[in-house]
Please model this.
Amino acid sequence: MCEQAVNAIIENYRGKPEALIHALTEIQHELNWLPREVLAEVAAALGVPLAQAIQIASFYKVFSLTPKGRHELHVCTGMTCHLRGGDKLLAKVEAVTGLKPGETDAAGRFTLERGSCLGSCSIGPELIVDGKHHGRMTPEQVEAVLDQYS
Model:
C-alpha cells in the first residue's frame, strides 16, 4: 500500500518542480522517512536535480533521511524540565523502549529524541508523543502513556 501511495504522490506532482517540498512532505508523512531511491524518483518526475532534492530533505528538520518509528517520542531535557526531573523521565523512557536518543526500535514503533526546550516549560517535565504534550510527567507514568501508542 505504501508503494502505491508514494507512486500516486509522485504522479500528482510530475513535471512540477516548484512542488518539491509538497511532494516530499506527503511522502515523509506516508513512509516516516525519505529513502534515497524515492528522492531519486521524485527528482526525476519533477524535473529537478537529485542534489536539490537531497539538499531540501537534509535542510528541513521535518524530513528524515533515516527510518523513523510510527510514533516519535520527544523528551525535554532543557533547564526547567531538567530541574523538575527530565533526566529521570528520559532514563525511564529509554528503559521502557530500549532506545537512546536518535534511535528507532527494530519494530519501527518508536523513535526517541530529546530536546533542549520543547516550548512548554510551565508543564515540564514533558514527554511529547506524535506532537501531543504529556506534561508534568513522572517516570511512573511513562509505561501507561506509551501503552496508548501500540
About this structure: The mean pLDDT is 94. Residues 2-59 form one domain.
